[in-house]
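Recall that a protein's primary structure is simply its ordered list of amino acids. Everything else, from secondary elements to tertiary packing, is in principle encoded there. The following example makes that idea concrete.
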Amino acid sequence: MTETTEVRERRAETFELFFDLMFVFSITQITQLIETARSIGDWIAVVSVMLFLWWMYAGFVWLASSSTRMLHLAGTMLVAMLAFFLLASGIPQMHQGETALLGGAALAIVAIHSTGFVMITDGVTGRMVLSFSWVNALAALLLLLSGFLPHGLEWLFQLAVILLLCGMAVLYSARTFTILPSHFVERHGLLLIIVFGESIIAVGDTIGAHPAPTTLVEASFVIALVTTLWLSWFSHDDRRSETVLHATPSQGRGRLALIAYWFAFAIMIFGVLLLAAGMKLQFEGHAQPGPWIAAALAFYFAGMALFRWELGLSGAVSRIIGALLALAIWPLGDIGQNSLGLTHATGAPRPELAQTNAFLPLICAFLLAVAMLLADRVLIGPSKSAMH
């Protein structure tokens, strides 16, 4: 089975890249949902829809790895694009308890995905599809029904979505499904680039309305920080992880992929989205950057640590240390008007916040990210793939 997989190895098709446009839109919508989160229930809603979106997008990567019928695969993914567009369109209404559009689209995505596995893959039986599709359908149904619970209780079903998907990632073996290492790593890397792009877009979108000299300098530090975070993964881990997947028997790749490429990536993605939303709020005068940057880097480095640990790659400990050190950025500057520091002020914008106590956390975050790159150079060696 490994030999067959190697023969079929391929890179991403252009229609797969076109399909990723819906991921761009979806990530933008989730970032806006983060910006308006004011309660624990709101944060549960954010995490639930982000995990479902990532679960199903990853599911289509698995579908592409299992199919050799490119024309049929392209048609399936193009149809799925419409469902993802509708899902993304319904994301901003989650905090108001409106989930009909989002949930209906989620069920459609699950149906398209399951049908695709049955119709256009080789060697995948209906029983194999049922082994995961019931979880996908239940998660989508819970998202749909959460909006019909009494106001303030929506989080119960949304929390169930989080537990369901995380439990599936931890417990499901996926031994019988095909993963093409080069294609799989490339597709996930491209999706991660999209998430990094959202942080750039969020900053660029905001400074146009607040083009003060201090804001421009801070934006430069944000871009520098995002660049170092990008290098943190693409300098070594993309090629190293591809090598590990190639060396792993095909029956064991699914287990590695679920933990490293879904679970760990979800944590990393959440960190980058926190950075994007937090810096946008800071530039608008709604929040101080310290807590947002601290949480963003802590999640991102923790995700990288899990990724490396699961794949047996060196450098996991340095990322754990980085995640812990990132928390020291939290109190730098005023945390704001709330104890958590992650929910923004509900009053009128305070532009003066965008000009005070912002440089210190940004500089510390950038230096920490650079330190992580230097640690990799010592522990792993010079980069061989960042510019590929």
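Confidence is low (pLDDT under 50) at residues 1-7, 335-343, 350-356. The CA atoms of residues 170 and 186 lie 23 Å apart.
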